[in-house]
Each structure stands twice: as C-alpha cells, then as structure tokens.
Input
Amino acid sequence: MARTCTLKGKPLNLEGPELKVGDKAPDATLKKSLADKVRLGELPAKARIYSVVPSLDTQVCALQTKRFNDEAAKLSSVVWCTISCDLPTAQARFCGAEGIDREKLQVFSDHQDLSFGKAFGTLIPDLRIECRAVFVVDKGGVLRYVEYVPEVANQPNYDAVLAAAKQYA
Output
C-alpha cells in the first residue's frame, strides 16, 4: 500500500519504510557542509532527535527549527538534528539569519543522495523534499518516538516529542 502525506490537502507519495517505535533507527549519510559528510551512526551514543523539515525557507519549517533550537538549549543531554533537502549553503544562511546555534542544533542536508529520506520513509520523490517528521532515538539506537506529520503544512506535536526526549535522555 502506498504511503502518502498531504500538502495543503493535495496527496503526495512517500518513499521508504514507515518506521515504528521499537524499530532500530536506520543509518544515513548526510552533508554537514559542501565539503563535510556525517553518518548518523557516528553521532555520539546519546539520545537524539531528528527533526525533519521540507525546507528551512518556509514559515512552518522555520518555526519548527527555531522551537527545537530553543529546546536544545534547555536539554543538552540530547543530540539535536534538523534534516532537510536544502543545500548546505542555504542551511548555513538560514541558521545565520535566524540565530540558530549549530553547536546545539546540528543541521544536515539530505540533498545529495536522499539516503535519510529513503531510509526513514520521509522522502517525497515527486518534489525531492522530505515530509515533516520527528524521530526520537534512544542511546542504543532504538526509535522511541515516531511522528510523520500527515499534513506537511502542520507543526509536529512538540509536547510529545519533548516528553519522549526527556524520558530517554
């Protein structure tokens, strides 16, 4: 059965598996900058939040990223990551303009090979962007919270994300 999300009510196909709580978090390689790559499996063995957004240059994605940047300052025992298909240069520009602390909230690009979107089931192949989703991964690499936001224009359930992050931090 095809998986979908909607963008302002219009159905869009998703590529990749629908992950569930209890699944092992897949690995993926992302771009930290034009020159630097990072593998998720190489991140510190701490609880992690993967905040997935379609594009940082949209209002809801900017709100989500700024909210998690604020929360990262309060919960430093968690590795905070924002992931989009924006180019690393666009991500750096956004973070600079919005005062995002990239030491607390790491921002990664899935633009090059879409490995995150394909592994986590967040890729909207027709638009070559990610759907909105949030994953909380425990220290052992197990998914403890999974939210695929059905309508891309809506924000995630911040309270549920933060409760899971605090529980597994």
The chain has a mean pLDDT of 95. Helices lie at 59-74, 88-98, 115-120, 158-168.
